[in-house]
Queue: 3 jobs
Job 1
Amino acid sequence: MMRRSYRAIRIIAAGAAWLLCASAAFAAKTQNVVLIVSDGLRWQEIFTGAEEDLLNDTTGGSWLPEEDLRKRYWRASESERRAALFPFLWGTVAKRGQIFGNQAVGSVAQVINGMAFSYPGYNEMATGFPNPAIDRNEFGPNPNPTVFEWLNKFDEFKGRVAIYGTWNAFDEIFNKKRSGLVMQTGWTAPKKPHESASDALLRRVYETLTEVDEEGPPDALLQIPLLDYVVTAKPRVLFVGYGETDDWAHQGRYDLVLDSAHRFDFFVKQLWDTMQAMPEYRDKTTFIITTDHGRGSGLTEWKEHGVEEKGSENIWIAVIGPDTAPLGERNHVAPVTQAQIAATVAAFVGKDYHAAVPRAAEPIAPVLESTGNGFASIVALNALQPDQTLGPDNLKVYLSNGAGAFALPAYVADGIGPLYLASADLNHDGLPDLVSADYGVSLFLQTSAGVFAPPVSLYSGGACRPSLSAPEKGYIRLGPAYCGPTNQLTN
Ligand SMILES: [Zn+2]
């Protein structure tokens, strides 16, 4: 391949102040985790879409007529371009999850191995720390166990941790011999004891297709046994490695870099849809999607990567799943590293890899906590009791930004004299929502951390002021009102 080189948000009631608590550390709903890598896919394409200067034969090596290529991938704005290239990533993952690495908006994701090519990158993400001895792709068997090998030792995961990747070097990186992981890699034809007609057809294709790249097949050939394996064997922890985005860049074919990037996005969607349709995976599966290294920039260096090509250390990391707050494209956040991926994979399935392997970097906290940082935030009502004057009041949301530290309050307009407040995740998006009671009852849906949609009036009782009790699972009890019966607010 020419790879040259928390559970959230219990509300603790105390007077009129409520705490939005994230209990930190581990995800609660995720039971299965999938790490997906598209080799050498630049953050530039992820965040800005196709690069105009490369949409031609001269600098982009395109065999496709420029006009056709532009029709496929060129759009006037960055946001349209990236959505055209990666419809699932931007239409679903970035809406319901988080994505790091857009340096233009203050989010940096990097490899720390100092080499910025494949084996050092896969080693860093899979073991949690760089190994300076690994200085070539032909390094041989990885001396350090990966987080996948580590997880496979637990009873609940044993035999259900798998590596599916096009590159044959994954056999060494994940140490096939020692780790005993389920592996489908390189040109090894998928074999089954009892072959169906389509199994036999797939095996014949593997056995007879011209090996344009002797290190591995096209991505589409991996997708077939991958989906079959997921449906039949139901793995708990899965690694998926696609290679074409790197291969075509090394070949200097920007048209095929874009086509394979677009297909990669489709393959991720296909895997997501397949898993979400299965009861074993629905609403309890997290995807971490990333790349092993960046590449150079400009008219020539986009083809290659490594220490020579400046910027090759820059990557991107996206996460979607039931425990990750929908904060979308992250901006102005602390940098994240590739080494953090290993402990993040483990944390999603409830295991503390960093404690077991202290050299490994800590998990990426913001994707594991529904409030985004693991500290409790506070919501207060500012109504005075007894009312001094009647006038519009507010909820005050103090988002935590560290232990015992809070941002300046964000005000959310409420009605007249709100007196009661309760919180529960009423629309099941992982973010706690608020219900306040004044002389009516209003619902404030939290759309991203500390941001609430305009209130929806649930009850406009006028003279009756209902009380609200602490939430139970997914609903808030509308307590005895000053008048009227007890009710429940549910969605
Ligand atoms: Zn690579």
Note: The CA atoms of residues 421 and 436 lie 4 Å apart.
Job 2
Amino acid sequence: MQNGTVLKKSDALYIDSKDINLGDEEKIEIISGHFKKIMQTLGLDLSDDSLRDTPDRVAKMYVREIFAGLNPDNKPRVTRFENRYAYHQMLVEKNIPLYSTCEHHFVPIIGKAHIAYIPNGKVIGLSKINRIVRYCSQRPQVQERLTQEIANELKYCLQTENIAVMIDAAHLCVAARGIKDVGTSTVTAAYCGIFLEPSKNAEFRSYLHS
Ligand SMILES: [Zn+2]
């Protein structure tokens, strides 16, 4: 198992279950069976053409897509390159699409992540930042922990503490049920290293408005 953000039993979410060691195909089969029971309990007709394959479809989507980040094998392979241009200023990648799932209601969290770092000796391809955001998002999450997991993963990949992560996201559990407050978004941030200094922090946030 690689270092960085890996799933540990000490992270309360993950997992004290025998099922952690199952392969993807076994997980899909088990989840499909359980989801079929949920649908039947709700009174849905599983013999209907349109619904027949839904349990299998949902199980594949859970394991291979929206919860793929629970499997450390899906961690993005990140190659570090020498910082050949000796660029030591702030690099900001903003408006990274973010799709995650609220662990309390299992409905989507949809938003954007804004990331900044100041290169140390190494840099990584820009698209790897998007992949790290996606990997951490593909788990049942609360936004606060997601923000920190992305920051920790970037610290590990970039070998620097000088990382800033901001997430601005809407939670469908707030918009589509309960209070049904459609206009609300939630902002969380992880400022680390030099981004705790007011001037660097202000510089980062100024780019978000430009
Ligand atoms: Zn929720």
Note: Helices lie at 24-41, 49-52, 54-66, 126-137, 143-158, 172-175, 198-208.
Job 3
Amino acid sequence: MKTPRRKFLTSTLVGGTALGASVLLPNGLDLTLLGQQEKAAPAAKPAEQKSAGQKPADQKPTAQKNDDTPNEDDVSANEDLMREHGVLNRILLIYDEANRRIQIKEKFDLEIVGKAAGMITRFIEDYHEKLEEKHIFPRFEQARTLTDLTINLRAQHAMGRRVTERIAASAKSKDLVQMSAGLIAFIRMYRPHEAREDTVLFPALHKLVSPHEYDAMGEEFEKIERKTFGGDGFDMAVDQVTELEKQFGIYDISQFTPES
Ligand SMILES: [Fe+2]
Ligand SMILES: [Fe+2]
């Protein structure tokens, strides 16, 4: 894969505001923005607006220019899918914490769960899972490999959408019993789901496709991502889940370290 990914992104402007955290802040996250960026022209993001650790778009390694030397912006098909699972995992952490607070009867902003469910719909169900259903599962189905697994994964995608609808509805109706049941069901299904994809399905892809085809898949995924989100949907999703974590008080990961 030779097309730099980050240069498309990270700073599509919406209403004069950088997409991502700053769009999300004033009235709560407008996660409907994710997936509706096709009409917005991608623009270069100023270096000072980038998240810590991200390389500004105009600082590309020179090795990218004329040869096949890998650079940090090359994202393979599997890495692409796996890091999207990272976003999914961060949403599962929000779900986990919401359910914990329900169990101990601690009040919290139910809207955060509604917004997290919106991210699941737009980034996971309508994007990530569509990639799997159109570009990953069919290769295994045609090769008659891991057939039972892909059948189950497809069924879980379908059921996940139903559970997400219930979670979103519970956030609107403020039905904590329904919300808790939905969160528990979703977390219970998706942890094994993504773990099986990461450790079994995706690694096996290398046995089905040539290195050339694998590279082409990475390129194709990037084009789809750019078309879907008008930029780097992954970076946008990371910004958005980060903002939700901050609003929910679970962003500082040191709170998860045992004291002894
Ligand atoms: Fe999946
Ligand atoms: Fe997946």
Note: Helices lie at 21-24, 77-103, 110-143, 147-173, 176-208, 211-229, 233-248.
